[in-house]
Design a protein that fits this description.
By secondary structure, the chain is α/β, with parallel strands linked by helices. Helix content is 60%, strand content 9%.
Length: 495
């Protein structure tokens, strides 16, 4: 039998793998059409300013982008390619993990469910801390499975390393240790491992691996931990019921997972919780293991949605074991419907990416940033010896930094908190007396008029401020984005 015949025979026997490769090929082909997202630019900035950790997240996503851009050069495609490669490794790791719990047929169903979701496409196209988090989360579960069920003690050490690297990707990875202990506590068969030194060695190793994050926070008055917890805790303790938050979360999750998979997950979640609360039935050990790393994240965050706006990506780690459980229940008919819906969604997404059919009234878009950088550089030629800054947390500043040679500043120029821009080590006093160009995005873009007003903070920090003609960005010959422009003279930083 020739090689081609062998390959053909393999894919006939493993149709799901062929479908998964098809989805990944589609994503790879779409990569060159994807423009820079603000998140891509911001986490690229992480990598260009290496640190033990960062203000709003640990640094794994930055290190990842730095490694890829150092190896293959700096371009939008390389940044996207890094996300694609890491997410492809996550898909492979998921397939391996699923093999421990499912028959071959159900394993392939679970793989197809996982790889066809919108959230995998988002991870493949957009740089966020969730990209490495999902890889190390899945790797952690593989190691812990082998340590517990196959009694391979060295995997306690590997599991500890993987859990630590997951935390170095995103703080929500702390739920891995929580899930491990919850599984051991509720498992009659494996509860004895709580007194095993290997479990605690694994946890200690995981904490040791996270040392850079803790040390950076120690050096910076625990700024990152405070940022991630204080405002959110304050909002939650107000306990203000918001149906909009709840139904918004449902809409987000239904979009990320697609309707069939979302409803299957909701169904089995209700089923297992009902059994536990009303009948006091604990699932068999392997299912309990999957639930231990699903329930705290999925149910825990969902429980907050009536009183807090839960971001669409917070529940992503729960999908790993949640989709494996879904693979136990979903039938071929539902799976086929899920794939059809997925194909329709992905075609619609591709048309939007390539042709930009529907204008996006937000700075969270992949279009216009490179054009803005070109327009800004031309503007600097008319107003030489000026520095550039913006005031939208990070988006415009990060994107301009990616495309421009000159350094671009954020809103710390006018005394406002500026996320990790505050920790880049910039001495703003060196800018004293200089002139600047302030770029401000008009997210709604209803007309081409000037703003007509000047932010009082600008006049506090600059002697004179004059509004210039706005920058209008055309996409496919249509006026799609607008940026207000202000010329500011004689910068006076405050002490």
């Amino acid at each position: 039998m020739s090689s081609i015949q062998k390959i053909t025979a393999y894919f006939k026997e493993n149709k799901a793998i062929g479908w998964v490769l098809g989805f990944q090929l589609f994503r790879l082909i779409l990569l060159p059409f994807m423009g820079l997202m603000p998140q891509d630019a911001y986490y690229y900035l992480y990598g260009q300013n290496l640190s033990l950790s960062y203000f709003d997240h640990p640094g794994m996503i930055g290190y990842m982008l730095r490694a890829f851009t150092d190896a293959f050069g700096t371009s939008v495609f390389v940044v996207k390619f890094a996300d694609f490669v890491i997410t492809s490794l996550t898909i492979f790791s998921f397939y391996k993990l699923a093999s421990y719990f499912l028959s071959k047929g159900k394993q392939q169903r679970a793989l197809l469910l996982f790889a066809s979701t919108i959230f995998v496409s988002i991870l493949s196209f957009n740089s966020t801390p969730d990209v490495p988090l999902l890889l190390f989360w899945t790797s952690s579960l593989i190691c812990l499975y082998k340590a517990i069920f196959e009694e391979k003690k060295w995997f306690w050490i590997f599991g500890g390393i993987a859990m630590g690297l997951a935390f170095n990707s995103k703080y929500t990875a702390i739920l891995l240790q929580f899930g491990l202990l919850a599984f051991l506590i509720f498992s009659n068969k494996y509860r004895k491992l709580l007194i095993s030194p290997w479990v605690w060695i694994s946890i200690i190793i995981s904490v040791a691996v996270t040392f850079p994050v803790w040390y950076w926070n120690y050096q910076n008055e625990f700024a990152s931990f405070a940022f991630q917890s204080s405002a959110r805790t304050s909002s939650i303790t107000k306990f203000e019921i918001s149906p909009k938050n709840f139904f918004g979360a449902i809409g987000h999750q239904m979009f990320l997972l697609l309707p069939i998979l979302f409803l299957v997950i909701i169904t089995f979640t209700f089923k297992y919780i009902k059994r536990a609360l009303l009948k006091f039935k604990i699932p068999q050990a392997k299912t309990l293991f999957l639930l231990a790393f699903f329930v705290p994240t999925f149910v825990g965050f969902f429980a907050l949605t009536p009183i807090y706006w839960v971001k669409l990506n917070w529940m992503m780690p729960s999908y790993v074991t949640g989709i494996i459980i879904a693979g136990m229940f979903i039938n071929k008919k539902l799976l086929k419907t899920q794939i059809i819906i997925s194909i329709v969604f992905h075609i619609a997404v591709s048309l939007q990416v390539i042709f930009y059919l529907v204008p996006i009234k937000s700075d969270d878009t992949w279009v216009g940033w490179k054009e803005l950088a070109s327009e800004t550089e031309e503007l600097q030629e008319n107003y030489p010896n000026t520095f550039i800054f913006s005031n939208d947390n990070y988006k415009t500043s990060a994107c301009l930094n990616f495309f421009m040679d000159d350094k671009v500043y954020a809103q710390n120029i006018i005394g406002l908190p500026a996320l990790h821009f505050d920790y880049l080590g910039d001495d703003l006093s060196t800018l004293k007396g200089k002139n600047a160009i302030f770029i401000d995005s008009d997210k709604r873009f209803n007309n081409k008029d000037k703003l007509g007003t000047i932010d009082p903070l600008l006049t506090t920090y600059f002697k004179n401020v004059a509004e210039l003609e706005p920058i209008i960005i055309k996409i496919n010959d249509k006026e799609s984005r607008k940026f207000w422009v202000f010329y500011c003279t004689d910068y006076q930083p405050k002490k």
